[in-house]
Design brief:
Elements: E1 3-8, E2 14-18, E3 36-39
Antiparallel strand pairs: 1-2, 1-3
């Protein structure tokens, strides 16, 4: 299940919530009751190893 971040517009509290993709997004801050909006963040990962394109980020393996 993915982790989503929400920020309250009123108290600026940021919370991380483990939710299913099919779950409805949060609308209310649990701390103050204000309106929350979902934050979008970029994921950072690299694919290394055999089987990936030679132009991708991959380490050179010693033969």
């Amino acid at each position: 299940m993915p982790v989503y971040e929400y920020q309250c517009e009123k108290c600026k509290e940021v919370v991380e919530v483990l939710q299913k993709v099919s779950d409805d997004p949060l609308t209310k801050c649990e701390k103050c009751g204000g309106k929350v909006e979902k934050l979008f963040n970029s994921m950072n990962f690299h694919l290394y190893g055999p089987g990936f394109y030679s132009t991708d980020n991959k380490r050179k393996y010693l033969k």
